[in-house]
Each structure stands twice: as C-alpha cells, then as structure tokens.
Amino acid sequence: MIRKEGALGFWLDWVEHNGGLWEDDGERAFAVLPETLAQDFELAEETAVTADPDVAREEGALLLITGHPLVTRAAESLLSAGDTGTVTLSPPRSVPPGAQLLLAKAREAFPVDHGRIDTRTDTPPLRALRRVLRVGALIGYEISTEEHFQEQAEVYLDLTTRLPLPQRTADRLAGTARDPGPAQEFDPSALEAALICAHQHIDKLATARRLILAAQSGNGLEQETARAREYYAAALDSLERRARTAPQDRRALLEARAQSTREEQARRLIEITEKFRARHEITPYRLHLLEVPVLRLEVDVSRGARRYPLTLEWLLPVGEFARLRCPTCTTDDPTLVATKTHLGCEHCVTTKAPPHGHGHQTRY
Ligand SMILES: [Zn+2]
C-alpha cells in the first residue's frame, strides 16, 4: 500500500476534495483528475504519482515531495477557495424506520442501568434538522528547520453536544446529496463556542500527528546534540591539559578560553534544540454548517413509576442515533443510569464506599 502522508498524501486528499479519484498501486498512486483541474495544472487526466524517487525514475511516476510546485499550488488554491456556507442534506429516499423500530434501536444503542427507554407519547417521531459544523483546515508541520509537511484535517462537530462525529459517520455525511432548497434561519452567534471546540479538536489531532512525524524523522536532534557535546568536550579537555603544565601567565589565558568555550557550547546546544523544535500551524479553509435531517424521538427513561425525559435524534442519512452526553454531568457517550432521583451515568452516579464503612457500595 502506498504511504499516504506528507506532500503526496496532501495532494491526493486535495484531488479527492476537487472531485477527482485515486487508486493505490503499491508504490505509486494513479490520480484521475477532473478535466478542468487537469488543464489548470497542465497534467494528464490520469497521472501516476509517488513519493519514492527510485519509483519515480524507474516506473515513470511524478515525484511529489514537499516543495514541489504542484503541492504548493494545491495548497494555495485551497486557501483562496475559502469554502463557506450552509448546506442542507437530503434525507434518503428509503422509508424511514417506524416508531417501534426506532425504540428498539434506541434501547440497543443506549443501555440504561436500573431503567428502560419507553416512548413518551403516541406521536410519531418528528422530522427535524440537526446542525453539524464541518471545519476543514490546512496544517503546516515544521518538524525541523529542514523538514516541512502539509496535510489536511477535517472535523465534523455536532452543534448540540459539541462532540466530534465518528469518522465513519462524517464520511457518510460527506457523501450525502445536498438538498437544493433554501437553508433555515439560524443565529450565527451560536457557532462561536462550537468553532472553538472544532479548532481545539483539530489542534489535538495535529499535535498527535506532529509527534508521529517527529518520531519518524529520526533522532536528528540527539545525533546533532551528541556530536556537539563530543566536539566541545574534546576542545575543553585539550585546553585544561595545556593549562595544567603552562606557566602562570599563560594559564590565565587558557582558563579564559575554556570559559568562553563553555559559553559557546551552551549557545550551540540551544541553537540545535531550536532547529529541531517541531511546530504546526492551522489554516482553516472550509466552514460548512450542515443541516442534517433527523427523526426526533421523545422518550422517557423509566425506573418503576419514575420517568425522566430524554430526546434522541436519528440521523437519517447515516442510519444511527446522534451521540449523547449525560444529562447530569455531560460526560460523552455515557452508560445511562436511572437513579431514584434523576438520570445520570456510570461516571457521576457511582457512589464510593463511605470513609468509615465496611467497603460496601451505597445503593442508589
Ligand atoms: Zn453523568
């Protein structure tokens, strides 16, 4: 399989985002470009690309490495497109699941300790729209002063829970047809907090990716530091040896030189650390507010005669429920627990043994 990372990975992602395709051919990838893109970039509509110089030479593929003008132009075109707007997705044409089937699926998706999910009323599940923010960003990684990478990152963030959608769910939404009708009125000030969450999520992904890239780039830092230490240790050793046997006036001079060598070593070690300090920079280029058609199911979580209301939403284009937060402590994807007083989750309801008790758990 081709290693889809660095400049090559970025470029292949970019081809896909522009309506192209690519096929993995082991050491090469065959990119199939839309006609206009191929013309713009003066490429054949089917172009073999690789990140391996030997493969490029022997098998006649285009060598796409960092700094290649095609990669730079792809990055520029992404940023200048500044792709923003509201996108309403179409519900699937198939008949949506009925109330009974949805209830069964809800019980399967959200098991409740000490309780059970029941429908609240006889009204059928209502059609509604759930909002999801899609944020795409270009990430520039600088692993050392000599190693730079560009990659794309994307996050789909649910506006209600501010939780990122699982990749599989995001992929399904990305492939869902758009509804050409007008978007609904929406107050954009509600986006701010979600945008911050989306940025934090992308930053977390980028940080994890940067650590991998830095590890793959080898221990250049350690090697260069070791070389510098060795060089200065030898220089200092020689100065000290000469100082021991030198006459008094010459000794002071040698000691002063040793001192300045130690200072120079400290400066050099800082320089080397700086050279290998990895960083990344996030440049957003896409912001879509997706309106996802859902079936809203109003349920009660019941424990005996007690009933706690809960709203669940079935994402129609994906065929699954939206993720939940605990209604009490906001933990993500909670295992719900119906207590005698409220609806919580394993995380907030579990009671610890009393400090002077006999180690048994309090009943809730
Ligand atoms: Zn909780």
Account of the 3D structure:
It is a single chain. The chain is of the alpha+beta class and 364 residues long. Among the domains are: 1-81, Dihydrodipicolinate Reductase, domain 2, CATH 3.30.360.80; 220-280. Helices cover 39% and strands 27% of the residues. It has ten helices and 14 strands. The chain has helices at residues 6-17, 35-40, 53-59, 69-81, 99-109, 167-174, 191-216, 220-245, 248-275, 346-349, and strands at 21-25, 28-32, 46-50, 62-63, 83-88, 112-113, 116-119, 126-142, 148-158, 279-303, 306-315, 320-321, 336-338, 343-345. Strands 5, 7, 8, 9, 10, 11 and 12 form a seven-stranded mixed beta sheet that branches. A four-stranded mixed beta sheet has the order 1-2-3-4, with helices on both faces. Strands 6-13-14 form a three-stranded mixed beta sheet. Helix 8 (220-245) runs antiparallel to helix 9 (248-275). The longest helix has 28 residues, at 248-275. The protein is flat. The mean pLDDT is 87. It binds zinc ion. Zinc ion (ZN) binds at residues 326, 328-329, 331, 334, 344-345, 347-348.
Cα-atom Rg, whole angstroms? 30 Å
CATH class of the domain at 1-81: Alpha Beta
Bound heterogens, unique: zinc ion
Biggest sheet statistics: 7 strands, mixed
| CATH fold topology of the domain at 1-81 | Dihydrodipicolinate Reductase, domain 2
Order of helices and strands: HEEHEHEHEHEEEEHHHHEEEEEH
Mean pLDDT score, rounded?
87
The appropriate CATH architecture of the domain at 1-81 is 2-Layer Sandwich
Class by helix and strand content? Answer: alpha+beta
Described by the principal axes of the CA atoms, the overall outline is flat
